[in-house]
Each structure stands twice: as structure tokens, then as C-alpha cells.
Automatic annotation (TrEMBL):
Keyword terms, alphabetized: Hydrolase
GO molecular function: hydrolase activity, acting on ester bonds
Transmembrane segments annotated in the record for this chain: none
Superkingdom of origin organism: Eukaryota
Signal as UniProt keyword: no
Gene3D superfamilies registered for this protein in UniProt: Metal-dependent hydrolases
Name of the protein: Metallo-dependent hydrolase
InterPro entries found in the cross-reference section: Metal_Hydrolase, Metallo-hydrolase/TatD-type, TatD-like
Amino acid sequence: MAPDHHFALPDDEELLKHVVDVHCHPTESPIVPEAVRACAVTVCAMASNPNDQELVKSLALEHPDKVIPCFGYHPWYSHWIAVRPFSSKEDHYRQLFIETDYPNAAILSDFYRLLEFLPEPFPLSELLSELRTNLTSFPNAMLGEVGLDRAMKVRYGSGDQPRKLSSFHVPIEHQISVLEAQLDLAVELERPVSLHSVQSQAVTLELLARMQSKYGQSWRNISIDMHSCGLSAETWKLLSAAHGNIFLSLSTVINSRSPAHRKLIAQCSPDRLLVESDYNDISFSTQRTWDMVNIIAGVKEWRVEKSWNEELEEGVAGAVHILEENWRAFKEGKHEDKNFQTRRKRRLRDFFPRPNKDEDEDSA
């Protein structure tokens, strides 16, 4: 399917009410109340940086029936966050970006050009305090968007200005410190997580293993969604076998760029799949999320219901019903270790078709 192909939306509005866009960024565009009201699906609205936490909070307060708030700090903004003491703005950013005591003229020129666009650093302790307040204020709130990104270069400019890339990357060690502190809080408050991982497979796997070792059952009490998951099918098989609390979600805007997402869907156990739009305009959430419902259903050979109360023949899966059950399990957490798959399959057996051997490989 081409990335710009769209599936016809169902006539039954009740069916769409059971679809959840588990990852989107509606506050990155001007909020039009009519567009929010017209959105037919539930959306998980992600925050990313210190400036948009309040925007997400306001959106959720105004539309509690449509919006699940997600608070957290994205790796693209992790350089704004200070994990070590600093004497000045310049001192903080030098610690991150200048690796030598004697940088050459080109590096210094690029650094000082970038510095004028960067905000005053935010101490991590202060942001964690705000994050705790936001998460506890909303019992249904998630942690997100958080993660790791080795590909990202820091941009010049801010806001709506044209932004070009500098030569600087945020050190992965710094990103890990920011992420792990947020995951610690998610474990404490038992909140699900939307996780970004780009060109960071090895360090992501290491971090998840460390969290499991550190927290044991407390780690399995929360769920992790690998959002717009770009892992290979082989890596996903290893990850899902090691972690019974890891789910994946896919978006057409990111994953449909490559045919590899179909292999990933085929490899993934049916009860670990979620759907998302990853869009920055709520006007597109319904269509983009519905497109991914249909793509997953096509790969998994699930029937896509025409209405919520449609009666399907015995042994035929209803895609929206399956994905809603997956979302419920993701929200609830409390995953058992070795018995996780057995428990989930028992809950779903009434409407799952018998999976073929290829589909069920990673649930063994």
C-alpha cells in the first residue's frame, strides 16, 4: 500500500469510538475545537518539551472524552535538560557539545551560532517534579513521548522559523540519564509509556533489560509501547520474548515508508499490536489510525468490522475488537512474567482465530 492511500471510514460511528490512536501530537498545530469534536477516535496526546506540557494538560481538561494526556520529555529536547550542576547557560551546553578543551574554530563557530537559539537549561529535578504533578493529576495519563535517538542533530532556530541542522548530536549517555529518570517515575506511579527509539536498538535493549533487572515485577506492572516501531522483525522477536510488557504501535506516516513494517506485523504476536497516527494535527487522527487498523488486519487476515455490534462467524477475528482488547491490556499493565501470553490468550480466545505458525512464533 502506498503511504498516501486511505481506507474508507466505516459508517458506524460507534465502531470508531472503540479505536485508540495511541500516539499523536495534536498540540503541535493550532487547536480547532470543531476538529477535536469531529475526531471520531480516542487520542493519546503526547507532550515533548517543557513548553507543551501545559498545552496537553489543557486539551485533556477541555476534551476528557476524547483526549488521554501524555506527559514527558522527548530526546530531541533532552539537551535543554541539565542532569549535572552548571554555572551558566554556556557552561551547560559546552558540557554536552564540546568534547575537547581545545575545540577548533569551526566547532566553536557552530557552537556559538547554536547557543543563541537555545533556552536556559531546565534542571532535571524541576522537570521531574512537574512531571509527577501532571501524571498524578490525571489518573489515566501516560508517560510520553520519551526515548532515545542517535540520528537527531540539534536544530538552529525555534518556533515557526525555518530550522537548519547544526553539527551537534546530544550524547546518548545524556539521553539515557533523562529517559531513565522518567522511567523510574513511570514505574513508581505505574503508568504506561510511549517510547521513541531511532537508530538506538542496542542501547534501548540494554536499558530495557536493566529496568527489568532493577525493578522485577514492578517493571512488569507497567506497559511500554515502541511507537512507530522501526525494529526489524528479528529484533522484535528477541525483545518481545524477553519482555512480556512490551507492545508495538505503527503509523502510516512513518512505517509505511518501508515494506519492512509488514514483516514486523507478521512477526508480532496478535496481542501486542496497537495503532497510531503519529500526526501533529488532530484532523488527521481518525483517518490515519483507521488506515493502520486496516493494514494490520490485512497482514493478520483479520476481518475489519463494519459496525461495532456486527455478528461475525465463529472463529473470525474482529480487528477493532482485538485492538481494543490489546489497548485495555496495555493500560492495565500488571503483566505476569512467564504466564503473560497464556493469560492474554485466554482473555482473547473467544474472538481470535487460530493463528498460523508464522504469526505465533514470537509468543512461544
